[in-house]
Every structure is written in C-alpha cells, then in structure tokens.
Amino acid sequence: MSGIKLVTLPIGNKDDITIRAKNIIIETKNIYCEDTRVFKDLCKRIEVDYSTKQIRSYHDHSSDKSLETILNIAMNEDCIFVSDAGSPLISDPAYPLIEKAILSDIEIDSIGGISAVTTALELSGLPPTPFHFHGFLARDKGKILSFASEIKTQYGTHIFFEGVSRVIKTLEILTEEMPQYKFAIGRELTKDYQSVHRFIGFKFSEIKKDIVEKGEFVILINNPEKTESISGDVKNLVEEILSKGAKPKLISKLISELSGLNAKEVYEKISR
Hints:
Blueprint: E1 3-7, H1 19-27, E2 30-33, H2 36-45, E3 54-57, H3 64-74, E4 78-82, H4 94-103, E5 108-111, H5 116-124, E6 131-136, H6 141-152, E7 156-162, H7 167-177, E8 182-187, E9 195-200, H8 204-207, E10 217-223, H9 232-243, H10 248-259, H11 263-270
Parallel strand pairs: 1-4, 1-5, 2-3, 2-4, 6-7
Antiparallel strand pairs: 7-10, 8-9, 8-10
C-alpha cells in the first residue's frame, strides 16, 4: 500500500478522536505533523505507542525538499499527515502537499473527524446554509473593513478564525460596520472551558466583558439579505464604462449574466 492519508485530530477533547483515525495512527509507520511534540503528546493521551514510528515535522515554513521527501516516501509506502488539531487542510499546511501529490498520481485519502468550522456552525444558532469559510483575517484594519464590505454582498453565514491577541479589536471593527447583523463567537471549542456567545452587532459592548481572552476563537456573522448588492469596486468600474458611452441596459445584462443578480435591480442601481 502507498499514498497519503489526511487524518483529522481532535480540536480539544482527546476523546473526540474517531476509532478509525486512532487505528490508522496505530497501523502507520510514516507520520508527518506540524509539531512532533504536540503529536507525541496526543499519542500519549490516547494511549498509542509511537516508539517505532518515523514522526517528522512538515509545516508552512518547511522547505520544498521536505515536501519532495514526503512525496517520494508516499510513492512506495503509506504516510499520515496531521495538523496540531482539526483538519490538516483547513487553514493548515496540507494543501501544497495535496496539490503536488495529485500531480504525481499519489493516492490521497481523508480520515475525517471533528472540525472547528462545523462545531462552531452547530453551536452558533445561525442559519447553516449557505455558509462561507474565510480562514484567518488580515491584520490590517483597512482589509478588515474590505472584508466587511464583502460580507454585505454575500448572503449566508460567514465563518473565520481569529487569534486571542486580536479578537476583541476585530469584533469592535466588524460590529461597528455591521450593527444589525447577528454574530456568534466560539472559544476553545470542544475543550474543557468551551464558551459560545451569541448577539446582534450593536450589543457587542454589552457582552465584551464576558469574553475570556484566552485560547482560540471562531467568529460567525450572518448576512440575512438574499438580494446581493454590487460591490464598491464593481460600481467604480461600471461608472468608468458608462462614462465612455456604454448603455446602462447592456451593462446591466452583462453584470446579471456574470453575477446571477437580477438584471432589472442592477439597472435600477447603476441608473441612479
């Protein structure tokens, strides 16, 4: 047997590991992980002997040579790839490996399990479909404001991760921009000190004091408007095209075809 198995690990409580994931870890010699110390600690907690295994690190800052080494081994033997917690693909370093493996005709398998995205969505009380996952947000305030503008054009529940040092500041920016939107914050999901806060944006100041600034956070925002609007960048481009003599109806039809927005509504907006 050969190939790469992406194994999802618990995001907090060790007992969340699936029987299948534990058995794969027991059976496989070649294991790649973000941090070998974190993985070995998990093995101890789930009572897996790792003394005869080849456990190596692979993370965002690993070299191309490390990636090629994994691929070469995976062509002849089974390999496991894990992140420190959760799915090794969701905001973790598995994608470049998967991409190269597929191009090299190496078999990929997924040993699924618990996900912070799914858990947060279940606990949020917000509509589960459609949802949009954005990973980690940029640090710059201007980019956070651009993200807020993007959310306003996309119907559904938006999910992203945030670090402890920035979670309050990010929420202050977003709730000020979207005071009428529903929010939820999940902290330390599935762990002993898990907490979830649900509120409407303008009430953030009331619950801010209750947020414990420790651990990892998942933030969710729901845009309930099914009629999507035209983004600022598109509006600027439309104005430029119209200034050069293009007909509003023709532009409306083009935007409608590309975006799925109602052509009549688009026409009304750009004709104002």
